[in-house]
Specification:
Length: 170
C-alpha cells in the first residue's frame, strides 16, 4: 500500500507513520497546498484544507491512500480554540473525516490571530522558540508537553484508519 501525506511537516509525517506502522505501507510526503487560508478560522475551513491535501496528495503521487492533516482555530463563546482535522482519501470514494483535541488559546495569542497573524509565527514568538509548529505545536506548549502535535494528529489518524478499516469490511 502506498500512502501519501499532503505535507512535509515532521509532526504530521510522524503521526501518519505511527498510524500505519501495523500495515505494509510505503509512506511518502508531498508538499500539497491546502487551498484554504494559511490560518484556517473555522472547522469548515480546516476540514476543507484537510480534504484538499488528501486528494491533492493522491494526484501528486498516485498513491492508494491520501492523507490530509490540517490545524486551525474555531471561535466559540468561550474563546478561540485550537482545532485539528484529518481526511483520508481513496480514488472514487468520499473522504473519511475525523477531528481531534480542542483547547482554548490564551487571550493574548487569540488576539493576535484575530488581528490577522498566523498561529505558527505567533507561537514561535510566544514560546521564544523556532518552528514550534514542526515540533510540539501550540498544543504541546499549552498542555505543558502532555500532548504534542504529533500525538494530537496520531489520535486523528487512529480515527481515520478505524473508519477506513470499517469501510473496507463492507
Amino acid at each position: 500500500m502506498k500512502v501519501i501525506i499532503g505535507s512535509k511537516n515532521p509532526a504530521k509525517i510522524l503521526a501518519v507513520q505511527t498510524a500505519f506502522s501495523h500495515y505494509e505501507a510505503v509512506i511518502m510526503s508531498e508538499d500539497v497546498p491546502s487551498g484554504v487560508n494559511d490560518q484556517p478560522f473555522s472547522d469548515e475551513e480546516t476540514i476543507k484544507g484537510a480534504i484538499n491535501r488528501a486528494y491533492g496528495s493522491l494526484q501528486a503521487s498516485r498513491g492508494q491512500i491520501g492523507i490530509g492533516l490540517e490545524g486551525g482555530v474555531q471561535k466559540t463563546e468561550y474563546g478561540l480554540f485550537l482545532c485539528n482535522w484529518g481526511a483520508l482519501a481513496e480514488k472514487g470514494q468520499p473522504p473519511i473525516i475525523a477531528g481531534g483535541a480542542r483547547i482554548p488559546l490564551p487571550d493574548g495569542v487569540a488576539a493576535r490571530l484575530l488581528a490577522g497573524e498566523e498561529l505558527g509565527p505567533v507561537m514561535d514568538d510566544y514560546a521564544k522558540k523556532e518552528n514550534v509548529r514542526k515540533n510540539e505545536g501550540a498544543v504541546g506548549i499549552f498542555t505543558n508537553g502532555q500532548i504534542n502535535r504529533a500525538d494530537m494528529f496520531s489520535h486523528v489518524m487512529k480515527l481515520l484508519i478505524g473508519q477506513y478499516e470499517y469501510r473496507k469490511r463492507g
